[in-house]
Amino acid sequence: MVSRVIPVDNFDLVIFGGTGDLARRKILPGLFRRYHSGQMPADARIIGAARSDMDRKGYQAEVKKALEEFVPKDARSEKTVNGFLDGIDYVTIDAMGDGGWKELSTMLRKDVVRAFYFSVAPSLFGPLAERLHGHSCAGPSCRIVVEKPFGRDLESAKALNKTLRDHFDESQIYRIDHYLGKETVQNLMAVRFGNMLFEPLWNAQYVDHVQITVAESVGVDGRGAYYDKSGAMRDMMQNHLMQLLCLTAMEPPSRFDPDAVRDEKLKVIRALEPVTPEHIVRGQYVSPEAGASYLEQVEDPESITESYIAMELAISNWRWAGVPFYLRTGKRLKARYSEIAVVFKDAPHSIFGQAAGRHRNVLTIRLQPNEGMDLFVTIKEPGPGGMRLVDVPLDMTFADALGPEAEDVPDAYERLIMDVIRGNQTLFMRGDEVEAAWAWTDPLIEGWTERGDRPYTYDSGSTGPEEAAMLLHKEGRRWREIRP
Ligand code: BG6
């Protein structure tokens, strides 16, 4: 395979919150990998901006530590680390005052792409935006990047959008949902819209149902305070799973361009039916190990926040009328396993009789681990003994099909940050999409909060609460296996 690295334009990227956890774990290691691959121009500059009083050397030492911790040894060399560090700068900044802004404005170059990453609490978005303009750091061509959580309900999301739009045009705002940066998620679009094979079958006439699973084996360990205010609905369902649902269910956009794609995703969210309580199952994990149950890891021992949620959704449009979409996500499950499975209907008539059993084609798109796709087809079991049918996967593990280079899949953040520099918003959420997702989410959360519904319990290491199985029992459906 030939290398597919296409260098991006020269840039200055300022990371507000440059000493924070996200910068250390994801943003800086991601940028380093792009530098190492040759995608970043040699004189691109990354400027950390934070409250800590530090000089350039001090920050470079911090960045070096982060790379040592989060980039595997075989993916870095002394030469590339030093080269990367040469492009690192730092400014001590006061988001609520004037300190550091003059220095920042003199550091920024003209004639290169200028991007500001707001890796800070949303309450600082407004003050930062004001000062960026007040100190002539921001102009009409700069870009800003913001992280989830983008609000905690419709009202707060609207307020955040307003704050940002008071200072920037929507075309300058890059709202990250890192699931959109995952390789397989983009492949879903390639598979759907680059092949003739699937799209004609991708509708209520041929699809029985769709399952979207994002299972995590980790718990809320160490993040209990944040997580308990969010729960699986706000933390994962409203954003990551909703995005996967949109890409699976949307109509073909007329072009692969940011607004054409986002218009189609928005239509899916707007076509979602309200979900009634009997179509939602929420859970909290319990463990025999001391301190390892959800309620022991959060402050409120009576908390009714869910660490697991499963739901059946209906999309009211011609393509999907009558096709259930089952979505589930949770912490402390059996394995870290995520997939989208499109389960096709039975053949209209079986010529092989009852004994041959029931067989269904399933297309699975695996996000993690081991990114790839399987198309399960029914074949004859080899050997004598009559016509026995068996379902086998046509395995499309990308690394096997495309060679070793496909194993070196960029992390979602790497790809998304490079898209910011390229000025491509296709894989970022538009303000109206975020608001539509909250408008759909809010009544559900309000419903169970008002009713005081307590989540079911499930064992750590299991597949979630048993009650979730009941969502699918109609018509002989069942959840797909969560595979370690
Ligand atoms: C984050 C959530 O957005 O996504 C976390 O806040 C979750 O709770 C994480 O663990 C999952 O991301 P990934 O890429 O590891 O599946």
Helices and strands, with pairings:
Elements: E1 11-16, H1 21-36, E2 45-50, H2 56-70, H3 78-86, E3 88-92, H4 101-107, E4 113-118, H5 125-134, E5 143-146, H6 154-167, E6 173-175, H7 183-194, E7 207-215, H8 224-249, H9 258-270, E8 280-286, H10 294-297, E9 308-313, E10 325-330, E11 337-344, E12 362-368, E13 372-380, E14 389-397, H11 398-402, H12 412-422, H13 431-451, E15 456-459, H14 467-470
Helix pairs in contact: 1-2, 1-12, 5-6, 6-13, 8-9, 8-13, 9-13
This protein binds 6-O-phosphono-beta-D-glucopyranose.
How does this model look, in words?
The chain is an alpha/beta fold and 484 residues long. The protein folds into two domains: 11-147, NAD(P)-binding Rossmann-like Domain (Rossmann fold), CATH 3.40.50; 180-408 and 430-473, 2-Layer Sandwich (Dihydrodipicolinate Reductase, domain 2), CATH 3.30.360. Helices cover 35% and strands 20% of the residues. It has 14 helices and 15 strands. The protein has helices at 21-36, 56-70, 78-86, 101-107, 125-134, 154-167, 183-194, 224-249, 258-270, 294-297, 398-402, 412-422, 431-451, 467-470, and strands at 11-16, 45-50, 88-92, 113-118, 143-146, 173-175, 207-215, 280-286, 308-313, 325-330, 337-344, 362-368, 372-380, 389-397, 456-459. The strands form two sheets. It has a nine-stranded mixed sheet with strand order 14-13-12-11-7-10-9-8-15. A six-stranded parallel sheet has the order 3-2-1-4-5-6. Helix 1 crosses helix 12, helix 6 (154-167) packs antiparallel against helix 13 and helix 8 packs across helix 9 (258-270). 6-O-phosphono-beta-D-glucopyranose is lined by residues 178, 216, 235.
